[in-house]
Amino acid sequence: MAKYLFQVSYTAQGAKSLLEGGGSKRRAAAEQAAKSVGGKIESFHFAFGDADAFVIADVPDHASASAVSLAVSASGGAHCKTIVLMTPEEVDQASKKPLTNTGPGREAGSATGATPATADARAGTTWLGPTRGSRGPLAARSQAKGSTRLGSA
């Protein structure tokens, strides 16, 4: 089973329902949703801040996680952001996968060729990678000054 973090933000309708039914009722609903797709809730916590609840669940696959997220959002009571979680061992496996594709700014035939930063230093340009709060490489365009090249890290 795969592990997912569901970051839930209640709408006004959802907050009203929470006030009427309480937190335990919301946790029970989350447990039932996970169970309906063959999963199980590992933890459920309410929070202060941008998100109102953080739920970690084991569910069989991406389609099952998406079904839960869609059902939550379709209810009108909350918005749900789904995040795939990985163990340190899974990251170890990923780091050992052979790379045959070179990214922009890398020398052909070398998985560890020039980085965008070193290639741009030679060309006298500035490379803007993803920045905190950006939505990807193109979001950096608004922060660009002078000669730039946009790309991903």
* CATH fold name of the largest domain: Alpha-Beta Plaits
Largest sheet: 4 strands, antiparallel
pLDDT averaged residue by residue: 80
How would you describe the shape?
elongated
Corresponding CATH superfamily of the largest domain? Lrp/AsnC effector binding domain/regulation of amino acid metabolism (RAM) domain
Task: Compute the number of strand runs.
Answer: 6
**Strands in their spatial order, largest beta sheet:** 2-3-1-4
Low-confidence stretches: 118-122, 129-153
What is the percentage of strand-forming residues? Answer: 15-25%
* CATH architecture verdict of the largest domain: 2-Layer Sandwich
As for the number of domains, it is 2
Number of helices: 5
CATH class of the largest domain: Alpha Beta
Helix content: 25-40%
* Radius of gyration from the alpha-carbon trace, in angstroms: 21 Å
Give the terminus-to-terminus CA distance.
Answer: 30 Å
Structural class category: alpha+beta
Order of helices and strands: EHHEEHEHHEE
